[in-house]
Design a protein that fits this description.
With 420 residues, the chain is α+β, with helices and mostly antiparallel strands. The chain contains ten helices and four strands.
């Protein structure tokens, strides 16, 4: 029962966990500007087809448990011949605690179902969040590209003026016009990608992309994480409570209950019957008493269920090995996620505080020098490209940070983001 309560706790927590994962940038329950992450997660919880199947699986598990809690039904037998008629009532008595073992196995199956559903729900909500972040990133890329197109239009006007004055060649005008046309084409393709990504997100609740006007959120508002010591302590202390580890424990419990059931099934049942017979010739009546049970000791191995017992023992050993390997696997996975997260946080910080301000300054100086005739058009374009590329790198690093925080919280089964 302890394990059952634990797996139930994970199922209950999985809803609150993912709603608590949301950073304050997305914490609104309602917005006039677009769909928030919290709303997307709630839509997924309410309408995701895979999650909606769980009540049916639970009903089946409860029915299996109900069936396991049954006793053998008494049997009646009537025999009629030319000279005699008899009626016998018999009852089979299960030995080896078979009913208890059947119920134990059904309970273990139910625990496994609870643990699997907790992970399914976590995975489903994580996938919704990833798709949401992808749309948000595409929207930000579109905004950055629109800004670049505005800059390129202004640059084209300046270059045209310089060309009319004979300061630059018409080839420079054509080159800038080509860059503007390519940017506008990229923007058109990006808008198509946003529409496609919205549809992909809406599939999580069987909706359509047309239902989503705009995604509301700010990738630049990064989540505040605990320091490395606090996070390491939380991981080390809660390793055995991780959802994936709890599933392996549930599978081990199932294997152990299956072994106990196989051993109980190897015990022979005892059948006792009582009846009455009537002789038509003499009109006499007699009492019938029957008793029977399989002679298991005459089988080759002394137990006709030996194969199932051996199979269950092997599965139990597999489950034991998987529990220990899962522990090590989760430790390594969490370490890898933390390393990648630290790397991307450092990269985003460097781009935002060092590289991007420097390239903006270079662009401003280059533009001024170009107007004074000190720089070529190609140098101005190169400075514009550096700013744009760094802005794209910053967006990508922000998305990776959010996804890695999401992966870390998904593995831990709990929120690690501080309130901001």
């Amino acid at each position: 029962m302890r394990l059952f309560k634990t797996t139930c706790r994970w199922t209950t927590l999985s809803l609150s966990i993912y709603l608590s994962f949301i950073s304050p940038a997305y914490a609104e329950t309602k917005t006039k500007t677009g769909l928030t992450l919290k709303q997307a997660l709630q839509l997924t919880l309410d309408h995701n087809p895979e999650l909606n199947l769980y009540p049916l699986y639970l009903r089946k598990a409860e029915a299996d448990l109900q069936q396991a809690d049954t006793y053998p039904v008494p049997e009646g037998e009537i025999e009629i011949s030319k000279d005699e008629a008899s009626l016998t009532l018999s009852q089979s008595f299960e030995l080896g605690n078979k009913r208890t073992r059947r119920m134990g196995f059904s309970n273990a199956k139910q625990q496994q179902l609870q643990a699997e559903f907790a992970i399914t729900r976590l995975n489903t909500m994580a996938e919704t969040s990833r798709r949401f972040y992808q749309v948000l990133a595409l929207q930000k890329q579109s905004s950055v590209l629109e800004t670049r197109i505005g800059q390129e239009k202004r640059a084209l006007n300046i270059i045209n003026q310089r060309a009319n004055a004979g300061a630059v060649l018409q080839a420079d005008v054509a080159n800038m016009a080509l860059r503007l046309a390519r940017s506008e084409n990229t923007l058109e393709q990006l808008r198509f990608s946003i529409k496609d990504a919205k549809s992909y997100l809406a599939l999580m609740w069987l909706g359509t992309g047309n239902d989503i006007n705009h995604i509301s959120g700010n990738l630049a508002n990064l989540p505040t994480l605990p320091n490395e010591e606090q996070l390491a302590e939380r991981i080390n202390n809660g390793l055995e409570q991780l959802p994936d580890y709890q599933l392996q424990v549930a599978l081990l419990s199932l294997a152990e209950s299956q072994l106990r059931l196989a051993q109980a099934s190897g015990r022979a049942d005892f059948n006792l019957g009582l009846g009455i017979a009537h002789d038509r010739n003499t009109n006499d009546q007699s009492l019938i008493l029957t008793a029977s049970m399989p002679l298991n000791f005459l089988s080759a191995d002394g137990n006709p269920n030996r194969g199932r017992i051996n199979s269950a023992q092997a599965q139990q050993q597999v489950s034991l090995e998987q529990v220990e390997s899962k522990r090590q696997e989760l430790k390594l996975a969490l370490s890898r996620i933390q390393q990648n997260l630290r790397k991307n946080i450092q990269l985003a910080k460097r781009i935002n505080t060092e590289l991007l301000p420097l390239t903006v300054e270079v662009l401003s100086s280059t533009q001024k020098a170009f107007r004074q005739g000190q720089y070529r058009v190609s140098q101005w374009i190169d400075a514009q490209n550096q700013v744009f590329n760094l802005e794209q790198d910053l967006i990508n690093s922000h998305v990776r940070i959010f996804n890695q925080v999401l992966e870390l919280e998904r593995t831990l089964g709990q929120s690690i983001v501080r309130d901001q």
